């Protein structure tokens, strides 16, 4: 979808982007980085809204930056800041964006209604946008970005200001667009669980330099394949049993066991051995799944190997994490409650 390299952007003395090269495959890509790391500048440069001093490549098969206007027609952009025209009601606002994208009036209005239905904007579409809540404004921006049916969406903090239900619905829409409608999506966000729940690949920027870029599945692989096992009651007997069987066992903060070695055993044997050892030690397994590196850990690892990353984000406070993601996004088995 995007293959650009050698992108440099300076604002006066500030190097906002230094020799940036990104290759974005179809799917959902998370763009992560601390404040001031260059995320917005990269997005704006891609869209030709700021002019980079150097850089070339292709976006959606078109030469970049030479054909940036053609590229812009093919991209839906949800900016971080509010964007609406005062005095218009929601439906007029979205239909106007359709018109700006070249759709005839009738088709633009039909698309605007269709997309507002998809975004779950009901009767509110007939109200003036200035009166919208933050959540409604995010949905409106999303509808505006989507109305001309672009193959590539660039979403800058689309879940900011949404309550948990709205956030869940927004992420589900992003998933649907990617999975069922073949859209490619770049999601710039600080919210790690959002990235872990919808992204196929991740780009981490710090200090205007790309520090990490790969598929999430590859980045989240642990050096040693490991199972995450939580039990009801004391995990020590099961831990001792696993160690006596040659596994490497450690305990997480919440008392779960990380068992390295089990994953190398065949899938069927692995499950039966785990259950067998649990039975022998009178341990009830509550849940088990393949352990994955969290995004926070991926970033910490990047910081360990690259001092610039550590300098740029020494306290990782820009990352909004949640404990539920610390041991992997998708449990493969859950037993009991
Ligand atoms: N118009 C501008 N003039 C001067 N410096 C700028 C301008 N826009 C951005 N910068 C600087 O460029 C660097 C990258 O900024 P950018 O907004 O791209 O980062 P960001 O990762 O999007 O940050 P945030 O997460 O806070 O939006 C920062 O040092 C910023 O201060």
Automatic annotation (TrEMBL):
Keyword Nucleotide-binding: yes
Enzyme class: hydrolase
GO molecular function, one term: ATP binding
PROSITE patterns found in the cross-reference section: ABC_TRANSPORTER_2
Enzyme Commission number: 3.6.3.-
InterPro entries on file: AAA+_ATPase, ABC_transporter-like_ATP-bd, P-loop_NTPase
Domain ABC transporter: 2-232
Region annotated Disordered, chain positions: 318-337
SMART domains, per the entry: AAA (SM00382)
Gene3D superfamilies, A to Z: P-loop containing nucleotide triphosphate hydrolases (3.40.50.300)
Stretches that traverse the bilayer: none
A Pfam family hit: ABC_tran
Domain of life: Bacteria
Alphabetically ordered keywords of this record: ATP-binding, Hydrolase, Nucleotide-binding, Transport
Family note: Belongs to the ABC transporter superfamily.
Matches recorded under PANTHER family: ABC TRANSPORTER, ATP-BINDING PROTEIN (PTHR43335)
UniProt protein name: Putative ABC transporter ATP-binding protein YxlF
Native source organism of the sequence: Stieleria marina
